[in-house]
# Entry
Amino acid sequence: MKETWYFVDSGHCTPSFNMAMDEALLNWHSEGKIPPVLRFYGWKPAGISVGYFQKVNGKIDVDGAKNYGIDLVRRQTGGRAVLHDQELTYSVLVSENHESMPSSVKEAYLVLSKGLLEGFRELNINAEFAIPEGKLKTTNSAVCFEEPSWYELIVEGKKAAGSAQTRKKGVILQHGSIPIEVDKVKLFDLFLYPNERVKERARRAFDDKAVAINEVSKTNISFEQVKTAFKTGFERGLDIEFEPFELSSGQLAEVHELEKKYKSEEWNYSR
# Structure
C-alpha cells in the first residue's frame, strides 16, 4: 500500500501568510499531529522572499519593490532572493527520520525533486536534474536562479525550478518556485546594481540561465494546469497518494499568530 500524505491547496495568499503557513505545518508535523505534507500555493500580492541569512541592505531595492506593490518577506530557508509572481510554489514537510529520506541534504533534494521532475514530464517538458561540474560557481548576485544547485531542475540547460531546504525540530522543509512566466524587467528592478549598464548586462545574462514553463511549453499553460500536473508528479515521483487537508479555525488562528513575525520589520530586515 502507498503511504498517504496530506495535500494542502492554499490558493494565492500574502507573502507573510505563505511563510507562516509553512512554519505552522512544520510545527504540526514535528508534534505528530499531521502526516507528511505537500502544499501548493501562489502569491497575492507578488512577493520577494529573501534567504534566512541574506542581507537586505545594499542588495535589495526596497523602494523598487514598494513601487511594484511587492511585499518583502524573509523565509526560514537559506539561499538568495526570489521574486514570487507568476509561479506555482510548493512546500514539502517530512520527518528527517522518514524511511525514504536520506540523512544528507543533497540526497534528500534528489528524492524530493523527483516529484518536480515528474511534474515537468506531465506537462511534456523535458526536464533533468542539474549536476554541477566541480564546485558550484559562487556569483556575487543576490538573485536566485542565477545558478542551479544540486538536483534542481533544468530545461534546455536553463534553471526551471529553484528550491531551498532547512531542517528544524526533526522535520525537513523543502520549498521552491516553479515559474510559469517571468517579467525580467520587474525582476531586475528589485535588485541594486552599480549602474544601469551592469543591470542590463545581468538581465541579458539571465536569459541564458533561467527559463519559465511558458517559454518552453508548446502551448500556454495556466496556473491550474501546472498545479494538476505537479500534484500528479509528486504522487508518482514519491510513490505516495494524497488526502486533501483543510485547516480548522483553530489551526488557521495559529497561522495568523505566526504571521505577525513575518510581517515584522525586525524579522524581515534584521540581517
Notes: Confidence is low (pLDDT under 50) at residues 135-139. The radius of gyration is 18 Å. The CA atoms of residues 3 and 240 lie 5 Å apart.
